[in-house]
């Protein structure tokens, strides 16, 4: 499936260079002069990270999503709690769930070695998400760059704005709409669940209490996810039962046969407005990949900090001292 994605990636990347993101003062060539080896440095570090743990590609894609949905794509999710500062890492959707912070730290260290004080953590997160997708067989695209890092974070927004795995379709459409993303963007971005894993606590209700699920699949997942709340909560299951660490369109085929791991996944194919699009993505991997790239660029353009609105953190985990 990976070769099919790459057949059209160069043309697609060129067609997206002047996307809506450019209107937000972001540009794929933002660092062309100030840090010409940026993308090579990020890619090399990501290759090492994926070789060490293939799952990390999915984790960093998720980290980017969780960053952008709270205050915009500003690296606020990377900030550690301190005595006087409460960040987003301890929010319900993030605590003991979002991972990959150490990889971002390593990328930042390597980038600082060649371009000190030039590249934001927010842009590093965006590039890492793209490269993680690509290295697992997904599409390659030109990432608009030029974001700055925030000096604030919002625990309350992280708890309220990130969609829950129990969300209904109407709730998902509303949540994404609040961020300027369409229902089509929602369905395309949900295809990120073609890679990675989820914890038992996120899908327990779906496999025990929902009717919109294949019974054999529910039984399979019940084998490692006990019914009792608090029992085996952190046990993992692949979001895509077929190709859990390959970025392809198999996720949508799973939905067609009621094998979505999360309730929110299966809501995309449950007699609602997105059924036809799920069927199209299942039959046409190139269409899915193209829409995924478009939606990723749109998501990466949510409220970026530019100009004098932010800073370039020296350490992605802490705000620069004044």
Automatic annotation (TrEMBL):
Co-factor requirement: Ca(2+); heme b
Domain of life: Eukaryota
Span of domain Plant heme peroxidase family profile: 25-320
Residue positions of the active site: 66 (proton acceptor)
Binding of Ca(2+) 1, residues: 67, 70, 72, 74, 76, 88
Enzyme class: oxidoreductase
Stretches that traverse the bilayer: none
One GO MF term: heme binding
Keyword ATP-binding: no
Keywords, sorted A to Z: Calcium, Disulfide bond, Glycoprotein, Heme, Hydrogen peroxide, Iron, Metal-binding, Oxidoreductase, Peroxidase, Secreted, Signal
A biological process term (GO) from this entry: response to oxidative stress
Site label Transition state stabilizer, positions: 62
Coiled-coil features, chain-numbered ranges: none
Reaction(s) catalysed (UniProt annotation): 2 a phenolic donor + H2O2 = 2 a phenolic radical donor + 2 H2O
Pfam families listed in its UniProt record: peroxidase (PF00141)
Binding note for cofactor: Binds 2 calcium ions per subunit. Binds 1 heme b (iron(II)-protoporphyrin IX) group per subunit.
Annotated positions binding heme b: 193
CDD domains: secretory_peroxidase
Disulphide connectivity of cysteines: 35-115, 68-73, 121-316, 200-225
Keyword DNA repair: no
EC number in record: 1.11.1.7
Cellular-component GO terms for this entry: extracellular region
Subcellular location: Secreted
PANTHER family found in the cross-reference section: PEROXIDASE, PEROXIDASE 72-RELATED
Protein name per its UniProtKB record: Peroxidase
Species whose genome carries this gene: Urochloa decumbens
Organism lineage string: Eukaryota, Viridiplantae, Streptophyta, Embryophyta, Tracheophyta
